[in-house]
Design goal:
This protein has three domains: 12-107, Orthogonal Bundle (Butyryl-Coa Dehydrogenase, subunit A, domain 1); 129-232, Butyryl-CoA Dehydrogenase, subunit A, domain 2; 239-387, Up-down Bundle (Butyryl-CoA Dehydrogenase, subunit A, domain 3). It is 44% helix and 17% strand. The chain is built from ten helices and twelve strands. β1 and β2 (41-42) form a beta hairpin. The chain is globular, with a radius of gyration of 22 Å. The relative contact order is 0.10.
Length: 389
């Protein structure tokens, strides 16, 4: 980004990476996007093929440190990759992707002993994991968490219920957030634990199929005993441990919105000149022209906002409210673009043989998951009132 902070171009290495992924999406993913999935999952044969290609391109384990065999990409680089991948519906919207096991920053902060038992097996593909925070009464408000972890000697006893947990059915262990001091809530009262799924008292209590096509699970925890050595960090560090990932996730959700907007603009500007109504191409209609102009302007603004937020994350200068702005603006842009694209394609836009309706469903969901935009706006407003006092 440059030493002065006024260079608005992506660094050369990130631009090259973005261009590489753009070509990969055009050549390898878009041609198969309407036949790559089996329900919520990527077809096994297609996954094997695509993973082999990403290995050949040197794109394996994008966010994992180099000393662990990964590419050690910055959030700016990861956001650029996410933006390009979101131009297609060939892959699951919420992982796992095709660049190797996805490792949250929480796992990278484990102790050496914990890494041996949990991180390294994940990197080798021997174990899989799920992140369990959301509860029926504590989704966007983790301070209201009712799952408790009470220390008894050298163990914690965990009781509670988790909801909307992705990938839990096939997980070997959970990264589970529980209240160790409920009175403190999210301000020092939450702690993260590594909980093996075969631990007595852990059970899958239900599942939910979502309009995006993915499936999440409910997890019951009944007097689950977890050794102290399975605690991540100190007691009360739960939100601290999760916050880095949460901020990065908001940026990546924003990048997804950018990718959807870019693809929708590609589709609208390709279709509108060809589709004729009442003797004139759709591209001649002012309603279409204005919408395209607005979407393109918002895409350019969204890119600048997302890239700046990612850069500030990487340089350690990020303020949390900047991720609120980025998520709000870009996830809403993604849905707006998908909605306009569907509208301008008419009945064809709603057809399941086209990618538009799936982009529409997925884009809509990102305005809820990872923090509803209404809560982001309320939090952002509090920050703004503070800034201008």
């Amino acid at each position: 980004m440059g030493d002065t902070g006024m260079d608005f171009e992506l660094p050369p290495e990130v631009r090259i990476l973005k261009d590489t992924i753009h070509r990969f999406v055009d050549q390898e993913l878009i041609p198969i996007e309407m036949r790559s999935m089996d329900g919520p999952d990527l077809k096994p044969n297609i996954r094997r093929c695509l993973e082999a290609k990403t290995r050949e391109l040197g794109l394996w384990l994008l966010e994992v440190p180099a000393e662990l065999g990964g590419q050690d990409l910055s959030l700016l680089a990861v956001a650029a990759v996410t933006e390009e991948l979101a131009r297609t519906v060939a892959l699951p919207a919420r992982g796992p992707g095709i660049f190797g096991p996805e490792v949250r920053s929480i796992l990278l902060s484990l102790s050496d002993a914990q890494k041996e038992r949990y991180l390294y097996p994940v990197l080798r593909g021997e174990k899989s994991t799920a992140f369990a925070q959301t509860e029926p009464d504590a989704g966007a408000d983790p301070g209201g968490m009712r799952t408790t972890a009470v220390r008894q000697g050298d163990r914690y006893v965990i009781n509670g219920y988790k909801r909307f947990i992705a990938h839990a059915k096939d997980a070997d262990f959970l990264q589970l957030v529980a209240a160790t001091d409920p009175k403190k809530g999210s301000r020092g009262g939450l702690t993260v634990f590594l909980v093996d799924m075969d631990t007595p008292g852990v059970s899958i209590a239900g599942q939910t199929v979502h309009m995006m096509g993915d499936v999440t699970y409910e997890i019951a925890l009944d007097n689950v005993e977890v050794p102290v050595e399975n605690r991540i960090g100190n007691e009360g560090d739960g939100m601290k441990a999760a916050q880095t990932w949460i901020n990065a996730n908001r940026v990546n959700q924003a990048a997804r919105g950018l990718g959807v907007a870019a693809r929708c603009l590609e589709m609208i500007t390709s279709y509108a000149p060809q589709r004729t109504t009442f003797g004139r191409p759709l591209a001649d209609r002012q309603a279409v022209q204005f919408s395209v102009a607005d979407l393109y302007t918002k895409l350019q603004a969204g890119q600048l906002l997302t890239y700046r937020t990612a850069w500030k994350f990487d340089t350690g200068t990020l303020q949390r409210h900047e991720t609120f702005m980025t998520k709000i603006f870009c996830t809403e842009l993604g849905f707006e673009a998908a909605d306009r694209c569907m509208q301008f394609h008419g009945g064809l836009g709603t057809a399941t043989e086209m990618p538009i309706e799936r982009m529409w469903r997925e884009a809509r969901s990102f305005m809820i998951t990872g923090g509803p935009v209404e809560i982001m706006r309320a939090s952002l407003a509090r920050e703004v009132f503070t800034l201008y006092r």
